[in-house]
Specification:
The protein is an alpha/beta fold and about 180 residues long. The chain has helices at about 45-50, 80-95, 105-115, 125-135, 140-145, 155-175, and strands at about 10-15, 20-25, 30-35, 40, 40-45, 60-65, 100-105, 145-150, 150-155. Helix content is about 40%, strand content about 25%. The strands form three sheets. The chain has a five-stranded mixed β-sheet. A two-stranded antiparallel sheet has the order 4-5. The longest helix has 20 residues, at about 80-95. The two termini are about 15 Å apart.
Length: about 180
């Protein structure tokens, strides 16, 4: 892969309701993001395809999070694990069918890179750490990761995770250090 031709890094937080986040490599600014919609019990594959078709496979590298166990006690239920794995497989198949270079990223790699690994934290606390890190690294996009909804604060850890995966991909795989 010639990284000189690469314009975009796309991070994918897979799952039925995951998120896709695209960063311009040269400016390090957000190009766009897409929240994966759920249709019944499945992801909106047509929506994902439509979003990704705006990018040229020759100018874009996709960083896809690989399956991993987690949950309130660190282990997914069999059903949740199956659904997550289905999301990963669907995203991988879509990206490969569209001709993209797909790099698999383990959660421990990108979370470790950003110092987001804490065995003492609950699942919810870990997701909040992801949102806070994304806001710190990209303050101009804070409104995308957390925002006010009527009278409560809402957090989009799926967007934050996709952003962090793309940022990790840029810093570890697409830049000369």
């Amino acid at each position: 892969m010639n990284i000189d031709n690469i314009k975009y890094a796309v991070g994918i937080d897979p799952g039925i309701t995951g998120s896709i986040f695209c960063i311009n490599i040269k400016t390090r600014k957000m190009h766009s993001f897409y929240d994966v919609e759920k249709i019944g019990a499945s992801m909106d594959i047509a929506g994902v395809v439509k979003y990704l078709k705006q990018f040229s496979p020759k100018e874009t590298v996709i960083f896809l999070e690989n399956p991993h166990p987690n949950g309130s006690d660190g282990i997914k239920t069999v059903y949740a694990g199956f659904i997550y794995g289905h999301g990963v497989g669907s995203m991988n198949g879509i990206c490969l069918a569209l001709g993209f270079d797909v790099k698999k990223v383990e959660p421990m790699q990108w979370k470790g890179y950003f110092a987001l690994c804490s065995s003492a934290s609950t699942y919810k606390q870990k997701k909040m750490m992801d949102v806070e890190k994304a806001c710190y690294l990209s303050p101009e996009n804070e409104h995308i990761f957390k925002y006010k909804r009527i009278d409560t604060q809402s957090y989009r850890h799926d967007r934050a995770d996709a952003f962090l995966i793309a940022t990790y991909g840029i810093e570890k795989h697409l830049t000369d250090k």
